[in-house]
Design goal:
The structure is a single chain. This protein is an alpha/beta fold. Helices cover 25% and strands 27% of the residues. The strands form 5 sheets. Strands 1, 2, 7, 8, 9, 10, 16 and 17 form an 8-stranded mixed β-sheet that branches. Strands 5-4-12-13-14-11-15-18 form an 8-stranded mixed β-sheet. It has a 5-stranded mixed β-sheet with strand order 19-25-24-22-23, with no helix packed on it. The longest helix is centred in the last third of the chain and has 26 residues. The radius of gyration is 24 Å and the shape is globular. The C terminus is likely disordered.
């Protein structure tokens, strides 16, 4: 049976868009569908953590995101006794460094992030198909047959893989019968993007005149003319989300009548839960993003974790479609589910801190220290005491080219290939498909003129580091052991052939 596409992605939020972009740059065909008739228009998520910024740099869209957003404003707390305290939401005073070029999160409304992602996807020749709903699917040994409903009727689409990035109420997860255990956290909240008058845009306003249950926060959405209102609400009953209703709520909780909501662009009331899917894969169907994990918004982890799910899964799907063994796809859940579990614990703990008025975002929310040391894909000849090991994030480092041009490792790494980097090596292995080779030192491809590469990687002479397409270190190897190391990764993860193209004549057209 002919295939319409290699990968069908259900859900055109940040996770689905990131996955489609990553697959496209690997030369893999995908179709991205979204049941809603138009793009999401709110700012449920409004922050990109430093690790996500690195990912988006690799995907070629960071500059646009930077222009659309900006730094988080300071926090101004209004207290019941009339006093005010200006502080920072973060206690992390880390500055950018050669190894970590992005030290702090970028504030950008979710609808603007997704607009930039759609723009990048369009540059790669694709676009989401809105108003297109997945109504059912069956899978067999070779692929997935999906039933699609759109304005023109019902269609059947044949794909090699189906990915559910369709949110916390995921149709894909429910259709697979995957358990979604967890707990309700006993907190209900409203969030609204509004146009209002009476507050300046220089700070994030938090009115804490009574208990945590009566606080209200008003944050200027950087890069827009809007503010975001966040507030806990009673567990039961209707909530008035009109401009008049939100103005009344602000008056009650701030004790000010000069703050007036002029219009409401988007709003939502939701009950907070912490849940994690029992499995991320059933056969040729996978879950990513909120379809696999939901949690409170504290700490700004959700959209970022979802993007990184997609970044992990994308290169592995591409590799298998190009000939790598199917077992590589098992490492997706192996690596990402523990990350999500820890993230749920972090978000839930920070929710408790926020309710006590003492939440601060430290380095742990930046997601820079997350990695895959325990993964079956991580191998190392390094000592236990080594500072950087296989499974860690590959650091950046300023350097220069042999002709004297200043550059960075992240610039040189950019792209979908594996990177093999050696320090003062004598013998260079033969080039091969999907593997880019770089040497550092005299006569090499890169000059470590200020020693930043040496500081970041600690490579000895004739030592190599193998870096995955998602920017994590797979292995360290001596020159003597390199042949065996490369042979292993060519067997398990580095494909040797191009993907089998889908039949363009059979592709479903919305």
């Amino acid at each position: 049976m002919a295939f319409d596409t290699d990968v069908l992605i259900c859900g055109a939020g940040a996770a689905g868009l990131t996955l489609a972009i990553d697959l496209a740059r690997h030369g893999i065909d995908s179709i991205l569908i979204e049941q809603n008739a138009q793009p999401f228009g709110g700012s449920r998520g409004k922050g990109l953590q430093p690790r996500s910024l690195e990912i988006f740099e690799d995907l070629g869209l960071l500059d646009r995101l930077m222009k659309a957003g900006g730094p988080y404003p300071p926090l101004l707390v209004y207290r019941a006794d009339g006093s005010r305290e200006k502080t920072s939401l973060s206690e992390d005073r880390t500055a950018p460094s050669p190894a970590e070029p992005y030290a702090h999160p970028l504030m950008i409304a979710q609808f603007r992030t997704e607009a930039v992602l759609r723009e990048r996807l369009a540059e790669l020749g694709q676009q989401p198909r809105f108003g297109c709903q997945l109504t059912g699917f069956e899978q067999d040994a070779d692929g997935v047959s999906a039933r699609i409903q759109d304005a023109t009727g019902s269609h059947t689409l044949r794909a090699r893989y189906l990915i559910g990035t369709d949110g916390g109420r995921s149709f894909v997860r429910n259709a697979l019968g995957i358990g979604f255990p967890g707990q309700s956290l006993g907190v209900r909240a409203l969030v609204a993007d509004v146009d209002l008058t009476g507050l300046d845009r220089l700070v994030w306003h938090r009115f804490q005149l009574g208990t945590a249950a009566t606080q209200i926060m008003v944050c200027p959405l950087v890069g827009t003319e809007l503010f975001q209102i966040q507030a806990p609400v009673p567990l039961e009953g209707e909530v008035d989300l009109s401009a008049q209703g939100l103005t009344s709520l602000l008056r009650d909780r701030s004790d000010r009548d000069d703050i007036v909501v002029q219009s409401v662009v988007w709003s939502s009331v939701y009950s907070m839960s912490s849940r994690l899917a029992d499995r991320y894969r059933v056969g040729r169907v996978f879950l990513a993003g909120d379809a696999a994990h939901i949690h409170p918004p504290t700490g700004g982890q959700g959209l970022n974790t979802s993007v990184q799910d997609a970044y992990n899964l994308g290169w592995k799907l591409a590799a298998v479609l190009k000939g790598a063994p199917d077992a590589l796809l098992e490492t997706y859940e192996e690596e990402r589910r523990p990350i999500a579990s820890d993230m749920l614990d972090l978000s839930t703990r920070m929710l408790g801190e926020a309710r006590d008025g003492r939440m601060r975002r430290n380095r742990e929310v930046r997601q820079m220290d997350l990695g895959y040391r325990a993964s079956s894909l991580s191998q190392s000849e390094r000592a236990e005491t080594a500072r950087i090991k296989a499974g860690d994030r590959a650091p950046d480092a300023p350097c220069r080219t042999p002709d004297g041009q200043q550059t960075r490792l992240f610039t040189l790494f950019q792209g979908p290939e594996w990177i093999l980097m050696g320090q003062n090596v004598q013998n260079r292995p033969a080039a091969s498909s999907g593997l880019r080779i770089m040497t550092v030192g005299d006569g090499g491809d890169v000059v470590d003129n200020n020693g930043f590469i040496a500081e970041a990687y600690g490579l000895d002479s004739n030592e190599w580091v193998l870096i995955r397409p998602d920017g994590y270190i797979a292995a360290f190897s001596s020159s003597e052991g390199l042949k065996e190391t490369l042979s292993h990764y060519r067997e398990v993860a580095i494909p040797a052939s191009a993907p089998s193209p889908s039949d363009p004549e059979k592709k479903y057209m919305a």
